[in-house]
Structures are given as structure tokens and as C-alpha cells.
Design brief:
Radius of gyration: 22 Å
Number of helices: 20
Strand content: 15-25%
Largest sheet: 8 strands, parallel, barrel
Distance between the termini: 45 Å
Amino acid sequence: MMLMKLILVLETLLVVLWMVESLALKQELSRGSFPKGFVFGTASSSYQYEGAVEEDGRGKTIWDKFAHSFGKVIDFSNADVAVDHYHMFHDDIELMEDLGMDAFRFSIAWSRIFPNGGGEVNQAGIDHYNKVINALLAKGIQPYVTLYHWDLPQTLEDRYNGWLDRQIIEDFANYAETCFKEFGDRVKHWITFNEPHSFAIQGYDVGLHAPGRCSTLLHLLCTAGNSASEPYIVAHNVLLSHATVSDIYRRKYQRTQQGSIGIAFNVMWFEPMTESSEDKDATQRAQDFQFGWFMDPLFFGDYPTSMRTRVGERLPKFSEAEGALVKGSLDFVGVNHYTTYYAKHNSTNLARALLNDALADTGAITLPFKGWKAIGDKAFSIWLYIVPQGIRSLMNYIKDKYGNPLVIITENGMDDFNNPFISTEHALKDKKRIKYHSDYLSKLADSIREDGCNVQGYFVWSLLDNWEWTSGHTSRFGLYFVDYKDRLKRYPKSSAIWFKNLLRTG
């Protein structure tokens, strides 16, 4: 018995020593490295966090159906329970308060407000989010609310194919305005969409996300779709939906509620594979087809020229009135940034001939390797390589191309493998995550102080380990370890302690 106690004491001492060593990474970085009023927060989404999928009148979503379809999620899991944030949000908010976070980004589940996408409001859903918002504010934590984080009510998909039909604009506007009415007196930061590029491509080009539509070589995975046209239709309807909602908010609510409205975009940075003009042009096209696809209409009133040229009639057109509505409809630019890739010109056009899809339309090949050498150290996710300079380059690109708009980093982070063969104590020692955030935050601070980029916030993905879409529970992004085998208990990783120290200094 005494031997076991001694072993436990020694293990605890080793963990503490390791954490002290990890904290030393932070010496040059503090809250004071950023402008006064700079917001630090953590990010989440309803489907990945809440669970409680059949409680209090919540309707089914496209991700409920997709996650329960055989072979769609790598570990055959689903988010029926997720991390049970629906019931444990008070505990999670206490974790945020202990960290010293200023804000929490979360999404409202459309199907909790309107179980059928429209019609009668579900009061239980309104009541739940009122409790969450009030609990955050009671702890001095500002709510940043995302209206759509991929969980479309299944009834709208069944009724008219969701984002493929312009009917979605009216239904989304009705849902959004209901949220403004119910929560806007306390919510001052609205994000209409999370990563429209991601769900347009993953859901309607390659079919790897809900609703799982495609017609490429992967068509055997999909039951319907047209990868050459549907991603563009979806993106167009998203832009019109955002602009419609932004117009409603500005005309009817913004003056009295004193809030702001934006979108959270997924944005890789791209570096040319070589210094050739072909690769440099391909690098710009890769960015046009990712970020410019949405930013150019929002800032200039139309899609990038490279998209018009290469996509042709498959790319929808804005009427004069629509272009005017879309242009300028953002108060801030949300950026979900994780990684950087190389880009090179696709000289063969083989991908375009074989795939006939939106990805091939770019005429660019994007890779995290130059020859056999990786662009940076790798996290667990197959796509996530660690290149801190990319965030500084991206901030300068936004400043130079779009006139230095207000930017909020709405997501940044890295994941570890959910290794079932290591102890919880070992899993808490996430030195690599500390270095990731330290290096990315240092480059972000440089972009603000030295380059004059207008960045005013940084949200970590994520507060907790959570259900990661098609990766299921194999991936852990959290500052807090969630024990999926023991009642979803939360344990602080070394990175949580690092952030707590960071936010209390300077």
C-alpha cells in the first residue's frame, strides 16, 4: 500500500516538473503582447459538443443522418452524446472562467429553435440558449454566437435539398431573425456561417461530409450530386443568405442591440512550390478558389476573375441588386486558420478531365510536401502541418487585398491522436500543443505590432476534446482532456495551465 502511494506521489511530481518545463516556453509571450481589448476565447459547435439529440424537442439534422450511415465516420461513432455540453455547460463555463478566457464561441442548433427548419418556435430551445448566454455573462464571458455550423435541419434537406435551393434564404433569415429577437439584447457578436467553403466542398463536391453529395471518382460513396456545379450553387445561396440576414440585422436590430455580424472562413495559407510564374499564379488561384470565392463578393461585389474565367457558366451570377446587398455585408472577418501548404500549377489538366469538379477547376495542386520534405511538423490530422509563419502571411494578405478589415481568429489549434494505449496522465502532457499556440500567437502578435494588421481576437479550437466530424473520437483538439470511458470527466492538459498563465500575465 505504501509503495503504491509512493508511486502516485512520484508520478504527480513528474507531471508537475514537466508542466513547469512547458511553461518556460511562454517567457516572451503574454497578454500584454497584444493590444488592449484583444479578446481571447475558446470555440465550439453545437453538434460536436451538445449531445442530447433527442431532448427538449430538438429536430433531426443532416449530420444525425450522416453520422449514423455506415462507413461515414472512421471509428463508427456519432455525436448523440458528444461531450454532453447540453447538460454540463455550467461546469464548462467554470473551466473557461478559471482559464481567464474573455469569450466563448458556440453555435446555436437551428433544429433546437425550429425542429422542422421553420414554422413553430420550440420554446425549450430558446430557454436552453438563454441559460447558456446568461451563465456566460454571469462569469464575465462574452458569447460569440454562430448561427450555422453545418447542422441543417433534416426536414429542409428532405423538402427541397437544403442549400441547393433558394428557398433556404427565407428559412435561414427567419431562423436568424428569431435569434436576434430572443438573444440579441445580450449577444453582441454574430457569425452567420462557419466555414462555407468547407461544407460546400466536403458536402457537395467530394461527398465526405453531410449531406454527402458528389459525382466525382468518389461517386460510389454518394447517392446523388453534381460535383461540377453544386458547390457553386451552395456557396451562392450561402452568400445571399448571409447578406439577407446582415441586412435584416442592420436595419432592425443593430442600432439598439449594438452588435456586429461576420462569417468564419476556413483559410489555409499557400506558398508557391517554386519561384516560377506558373506556380505563383497557381498559388493565387488556390487562394481565389478558397478565400476569394467568398471574400471578393463581400468586399468587391463579385467572384474573382480567375473563377469567372475557369468555371464559366457553372458559376452563378449576382443581379445588380444582389451584388449590392452582398458587398459590404460584413462587420468583421472571422478566420479559422490551422495550416499552410505549397501550391503548384497543374500542367496536365488530368485532374480536371478525371474529376470534373470544383477542386480541379483551380488548375492548382496543393500539397504539404516539397519533394519528400514536409512543409512543417505534423499534428495528428492528415491535413494539419504546423507552419506558424502562415498566420502572419495570411493576416498581411487580408490587410493588403481587402483594406485591413477587422479580423478575428475564430479558430486555431492542433490535435493529438486519441491513443487508447496511454494513460490519462501521459495524455495530459501536450507540450506540442503549447508550442503550437505559442508560435502561432507570437507570429500573430508580430502581424499586429510590426505590420499593422487589424486583428482583435483569438479563439482556441477547442476548450474540450470533442467529436471531430468524420474523425469521430480519434482526434483530440482540446485544452481539456475528456475521458470518454469515465462519465466524460474533464481534466486540464498542460496547455490549459499554459493558457491560464499566459492570460494572467502582462
